[in-house]
């Protein structure tokens, strides 16, 4: 039997049910998501895109309580490398999500940087590389956001490296971590996105373990990734091509990632996210059951 991963709290997210937007006819209704994520054996969920699940905390708490579910985090997108001009707009979005996140008893806010290219058309929206001044604005902006979210809502900030954003590759992630206050800014390590961008999750945990405050569990299909990389396919079409696959069929191997995370000696959420937008409505539940069984076999 594998050693018990008693510091790892496993959950799943609307993303694993093909949910990317607050409203979209291609997505399963929110009640079905809640029913099925509980049926698959998960106790923890994320909020997903704000407005997909009920935003009235009384309603949402009633719905989650009766299914034995609890919320681990909310998620926001930001473009803080653009400087003070975007602060008010950013805070307006963050405050809505943070308020609901706190009301649901969660302690984390996952922050995803804005995309530098359109995830459907591949149109360049910005230069893929930030200037030194933009890196400075990004670092200071994330520190300010972390401080104000903690002060106002008691939530810990976890920045999510993501494909087609400015925090993606190993070099970019390390530059970001080295430029930000370790007491304020932590990382949501998404194993799939990091592998998609060429990173080694175990190495990151071993090198910057004190910065890892949250995990997303995901794998990539190396054959599909090779084609995506060769063609320069943007992230959205890559997902439709099946670049994110069901574990344990892809990379990175999750067993050593979970063992390294357990070795940090702190409690960590490990939320399954298998990007599948869009997907047939009957596809997610069997995958979720098998993934939960696989993670149990790893000791989680």
TrEMBL record:
Q: Name one Pfam family in it.
A: AP_endonuc_2
Q: Which SUPFAM superfamilies match?
A: Xylose isomerase-like
- In which domain of life is the source organism classified? Bacteria
User: Where is each Xylose isomerase-like TIM barrel domain found?
Assistant: 34-297
- Return the PANTHER family for the record: HYDROXYPYRUVATE ISOMERASE (PTHR12110), INOSOSE DEHYDRATASE (PTHR12110:SF41)
Its name, as the record gives it, is: 2-keto-myo-inositol dehydratase
């Amino acid at each position: 039997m594998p050693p018990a991963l008693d510091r790892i709290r496993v959950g799943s997210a609307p993303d694993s049910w093909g949910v990317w937007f607050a409203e979209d006819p291609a997505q399963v209704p929110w009640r079905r998501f809640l029913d099925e994520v509980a049926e698959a054996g998960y106790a923890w969920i994320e909020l997903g895109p704000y407005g997909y699940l009920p935003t009235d905390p009384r309603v949402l708490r009633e719905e989650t309580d009766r299914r034995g579910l609890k919320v681990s985090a909310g998620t926001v997108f930001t473009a803080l490398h653009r400087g003070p001009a975007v602060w008010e707009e950013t805070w307006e979005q963050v405050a809505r999500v943070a308020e609901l996140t706190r009301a649901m008893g969660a302690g984390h806010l996952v922050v995803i940087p804005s995309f530098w290219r359109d995830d459907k058309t591949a149109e360049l929206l910005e230069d893929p590389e930030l200037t030194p001044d933009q890196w400075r604005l990004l670092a200071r902006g994330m520190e300010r956001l972390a401080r104000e979210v903690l002060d106002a809502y008691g939530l810990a900030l976890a920045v999510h490296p993501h494909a087609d954003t400015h925090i993606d590759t190993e070099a970019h992630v390390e530059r970001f971590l080295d430029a930000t206050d370790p007491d304020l800014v932590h990382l949501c390590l998404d194993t799939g996105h990091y592998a998609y961008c060429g990173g080694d999750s175990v190495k990151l945990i071993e090198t910057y373990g004190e910065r890892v405050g949250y995990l997303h569990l995901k794998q990539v299909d190396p054959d599909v990734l090779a084609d995506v990389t060769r063609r320069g396919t943007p992230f959205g079409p890559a997902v439709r091509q099946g670049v994110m696959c069901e574990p344990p069929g892809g990379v990175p191997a999750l067993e050593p990632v979970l063992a390294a995370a357990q070795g940090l000696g702190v409690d960590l959420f490990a939320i399954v996210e298998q990007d599948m937008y869009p997907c047939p409505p009957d596809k997610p539940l069997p995958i979720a059951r098998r993934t939960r069984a696989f993670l149990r076999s790893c000791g989680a």
